């Protein structure tokens, strides 16, 4: 929810909304789009891709039975938030329109009658201010408020790994779950992260996040019982996620663990949407770091443990030459727990089968832990 | 203030001071200078630059009305501390003398009658022990004490971004504000960070810091009311600064925000003088990382979010090809707050005007937040 | 100790142990070894090196008189834990066998009657699951339990800096002290970290660690008084070590400080076995970063302050051209303390003598602090 100054702003926001109504929101959208049309036309040689996102709340089930209130994006207006939100995957040259339809703002309660509003910041895409999703620089200087919709438009230029997140009350809204992966594949090279980087057989995206469950509770209480907002500087996360799951749930899902055959090459896109550094370690394999933040590295390097700061992304290549099962986990060991209980949190598995589908390590023995 | 062993050391310090008086402080300074004179003469081909710094206390005004006691350097003996201290900008080949005149030590109180003393560590300059500012290795094995002065001497060798800070009771004195930027420009290339790196039109230095206001209070109480020192391992910062300012003050100052015309290239020198990692993200632009810690990178790379550990420095180049206003901020979102209230802390703006001075985003809408 | 689910698992573990006894542990070991024998034979051209490690407890003496309970590896079955454990130094091409003999498990108490068991994860060696030391993927899906022994086998392939640690209840067992350095020297190049990297005159290995003494106490109480386990997400370290020592003990030991003659080149292998980022700064010198995680960097770079995330390793080269004494320390200043008292923790010295053995800085003045 908005900070203490929220109450004072209600009058101001109402005035702005009235002003927008008189100008016409459609007019603003049109002018934004037109201003970049010349540039776009040069770069656009792909498909037109349209996405619509909504904002909803949800309850995250923890392995130990805890439930954590959260909110985030979804592409299903009748569903709950997906955390992370739907992955947006496009190809270089595509013309992309992402509409944020704030038709049921989960931050709108009797204690916060206007709701906070939301935006989509396309992190790493380098777009004009009007498309940037920062409410300060957005048309009108505010977020997309309850009852409004706004279309973020871009032509996909640089292949790479990006992400999107809300920038309204960002310390709160990102923590609460408003993020998702945004992938741009290179034109004519769907099995490479960038032109001239290694070809891969399989591809995974791991969204790394951390949450402070006490702050989620405080936030909920603030919105539904009129309490005060969390003090974000006291942030101390107790749950740690890969694609919104904690171990062991991570390794039960074929998209949140790596599953391949010996001899295959795998690309993993690592996205840290959390607020602390995560140090990703792979057992069994070193990996080659080939790119970061949507740009190919001129000097790729090998690591077995990679520190990833908040909001950074890295593309890594694993050549899986050794059958078996291998952990992939954060080496800040306190983050391999579910609220302090090890093992848990930011752990998953790299499962490498023999060509006949067998594996030297029975999957069932992993379930004993 | 000095730790618990301070009381026991008073006798020892008095003996050392007496010894120094008999040897003559000037004699020590002279011998330090002479011992490096042969090397210096080879490298010195620039100007002689003399600086004098004093140590003073101050009260930092927070946007929410809080005041935080602090102390730091100043070049004005009649003024308060400047936090960060005055930027020292010299050119490769210059002969530089920086005198620390400890004529009014703000750590000298009835509960700490000798004061702590202070030094200047020229972080990254690789100087002989006597010029290094570590009190352990300084002449006599102690800091520059109340009533003393000491001249740090060097010939500027490698261009780059450095910083200076006190190394006496460093966990305390750096936290309290004793730091400043130190820039060495390349000879004959004032618009490049290093020879053979991109030329820039404008240049900014952003000193990134973090403070724990409760520890500042404890420190003040220790010195003025006789309480015990903070336990630095409990460090949990609640204020986050660019050049000593928190948002929105950062974006009100033309030196603490980026202000340029579309088409210009900007160099930003990032210096993390804080105790935690800061992950600097730029909206609107990727940047090229061209150097770190006073050395050009052989393999520069592009990022939109850069993790900067304590005491690291990075030079980044932004090519501003897109008019508008764009955030530059820490993506550890809890640090984009003033004591927990978002937005605040380590946020500033990149303002890129059209050639006619206009900007697609009215500045006044940024002030509404 | 194992987490809350430990009690429930006792029956399961007993069943597994019985199963293992019937299959024969020796048989499992034999098959593991055989499965890699073809690969090994190609690479093995060195010596056969056999090591045996045991697990024991110890009390770590802090400079301020505090004692901290801990446990770790030792090569002396009649001694206490060594923290860090014995360095294992082998040469590329060596055939290495490391037997973990869990004959006196320090986690076995009346409140934890089976003990936790232990493993050796050879971090960075990329071994088959059976040799990986992850209890989930180890034969039988469990650690080496009290009364068992297990031999980890590998042929040393890539020169570089690695480490080993327990992976059973890893958040606890690593924190408690179960780690050590593992060095692979290149064949025919004992004075280089990797082929084609600078030759060095002297070599040091600095194992960087951090400990939360309150959690050590909680852990001890859990094992010996039946209390509950620490919640690892509340981790807040108060002691910081280089090779298991805190300053000033670090600088008293010739292996935990750098001691060389002007003109010499020194290799330092930095291993972060802790749970937080450490930012290592050298006074007096920049250093060249030549490798990380057991792989040479194609684009080495110079730094004076290097952020090292959990479990990362870096090889750095210092050319010591300046006599004197210079600090090497973490620049997260709160970590240069012993439980909050500065100076302490992760600080040591680089001592560079003149060719005649003299030093411009008397060692005794360092002792005054």
UniProtKB/TrEMBL annotation, chains A, B, C:
InterPro entries: Cu-oxidase-like_N (IPR011707), Cu-oxidase_C (IPR011706), Cu-oxidase_fam (IPR045087), Cupredoxin (IPR008972). Keywords: Copper, Metal-binding, Oxidoreductase. One of its GO terms (molecular function) is oxidoreductase activity. Pfam families: Cu-oxidase_2, Cu-oxidase_3. SUPFAM superfamilies: Cupredoxins. Residues 82-188, 239-336 form the Plastocyanin-like domain. This is Multicopper oxidase family protein. It comes from Ktedonosporobacter rubrisoli.
């Amino acid at each position: 929810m908005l900070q203490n100054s929220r109450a004072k702003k209600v009058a101001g926001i109402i005035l702005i909304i009235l002003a927008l109504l008189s100008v016409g929101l459609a007019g603003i959208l049109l002018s934004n789009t037109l201003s970049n049309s010349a540039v776009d036309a040069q770069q656009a040689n792909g498909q037109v891709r349209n996405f619509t996102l909504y904002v909803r709340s949800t309850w995250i089930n923890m392995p130990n039975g805890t439930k954590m209130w959260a909110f985030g994006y979804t592409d299903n207006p009748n569903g709950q938030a997906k955390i992370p939100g739907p992955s947006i995957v496009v190809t270089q040259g595509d013309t992309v329109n992402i509409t944020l339809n704030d038709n049921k703002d989960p931050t709108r309660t009797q204690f916060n009658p206007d709701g906070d509003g939301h935006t989509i910041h396309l992190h790493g895409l380098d777009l004009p201010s009007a498309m940037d999703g920062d409410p300060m620089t957005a048309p009108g200087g505010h977020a997309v408020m309850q009852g409004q919709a706004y279309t973020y438009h871009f032509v996909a230029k640089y292949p790479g790994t990006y992400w999107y997140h809300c920038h309204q009350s960002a310390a709160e809204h990102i923590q609460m779950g408003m993020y998702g992966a945004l992938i741009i594949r290179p034109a004519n090279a769907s099995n490479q992260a960038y032109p001239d980087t290694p070809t891969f057989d399989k591809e995974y995206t791991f969204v790394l996040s951390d949450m402070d469950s006490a702050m989620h509770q405080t936030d909920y209480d603030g919105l539904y019982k009129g309490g005060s907002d969390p003090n974000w500087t006291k942030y101390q996360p107790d749950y740690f996620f890969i694609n919104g799951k904690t171990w062991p749930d991570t390794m039960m899902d074929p998209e949140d663990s790596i599953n391949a055959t010996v001899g295959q090459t795998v690309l993993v896109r690592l996205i840290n949407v959390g607020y602390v550094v995560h140090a990703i370690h792979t057992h069994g394999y070193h990996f080659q770091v080939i790119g970061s933040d949507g740009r190919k590295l001129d000097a790729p390097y090998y690591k077995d443990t990679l520190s990833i700061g908040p909001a950074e992304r890295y593309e890594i290549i694993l050549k899986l030459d050794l059958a078996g099962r291998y952990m992939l986990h954060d080496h800040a060991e306190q983050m391999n727990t579910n609220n302090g209980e090890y093992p848990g949190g930011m752990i998953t598995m790299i499962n490498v089968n023999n060509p006949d589908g067998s594996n030297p390590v029975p999957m069932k023995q992993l379930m004993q832990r």
